[in-house]
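Re: the request from the purification team.
They wanted to know what the chain is likely to look like in 3D before they choose a buffer screen. I agreed to run a prediction and write the result into the notebook, where they can find it.
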Amino acid sequence: MNASYDAIVIGLGGFGSSTLSHLAKRGLNVLGIDRFGIAHDRGSSHGETRIIRKAYFEHPDYVPLLMRAYELWAELEQETGQSLYDECGLFFAGPSQGEVVGGTLESARLFGVRVDELSLTEARERFSLFEFADSDTVVFEPEAGFLHVEACVAAHVDLAVRSGARVVTDEPVRSWSAEGQGVRVVTDQQSYSASRLVIAAGAWSSQILRELSLPLTVMRKLLFWHDVDSPAWSETTAFFFERPEGCFYGFPSLDGSTVKLAEHSGGEAITDPLSLDRDCHKADREPVSHFVRQTMRGMSPQPSRHAACMYIMTPDGHFVVDKHPQHAHIVFGAGFSGHGFKFTSVIGEAMADLVTEGETSRPIGFLGLDRPALRS
């Protein structure tokens, strides 16, 4: 059987689900394909929560995208009637000239984002569940918080379906090809054709975009939930610490008994995302356990549960969002490098622009394929 569409989206994680929603809302006859289910735990868009913030230490060029992302998350909440974002605030702690605190303050200065610089006395009084080093500089972003990651993915897909999209799951894509002004996508069950194609394949991007030789590295990452002994953990903020041994982050307790935290730095490169080791080993948990012993009050240093996910890294840590260099009607997004989920609402909009109009007003030029870090 061959079915034809205005556009096909391969991959329905964070970025693909958003793109599907934006395309369907524009009235396109669109198909979304995922090799697993919706809001599954086999990729990168799972694990309950993701931090969202505006004063972006990774690079100031992300801040305008974040301003639009916030607007779109609010629109999605309104359109679906769901609560997807919790504005609990976020503090950063680390050396004043470090990448995290220094970069946060620079982005805040350039774009007028409110960030409060706290004295150590203020930080210790306000965030009494944490131990701060005497060398720490602490800054607080009150409009930061976290997204409910699986709910966000499901909301985008649900809105797309309500807008007329078709979704097929548990269909791995075997191949795709550009055919004249259109495309053909072959799964292990059938073949589909369309005028346009968006590829948001996550950890499978290198395989599906093999001809581009993208320098992507898939990193195995573990998320941990640690038991806590105080209801105060449900009332705290999100947090991010830059330490000599790595960067660690976490969230308020959602269930009143555990707190999710993880190491943002580090990770183990893998070659096959289908063979991801999902077990927790001593080498996985010890850096986080050491951080807990040094930093957290009233928290067990050993995790009570864990989950495995993947960072798809580019050499410079920035995303790749662009049109295919040989086929202008094919657009892709990849390499979101462990900090991309908060952008899914706006990057989905930008990819929908690119595949329908050939351009976007969103400032994504710095994320293009033609940049030095991506050239072999």
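For the purification team: The mean pLDDT is 97.
Please add any questions underneath this entry.
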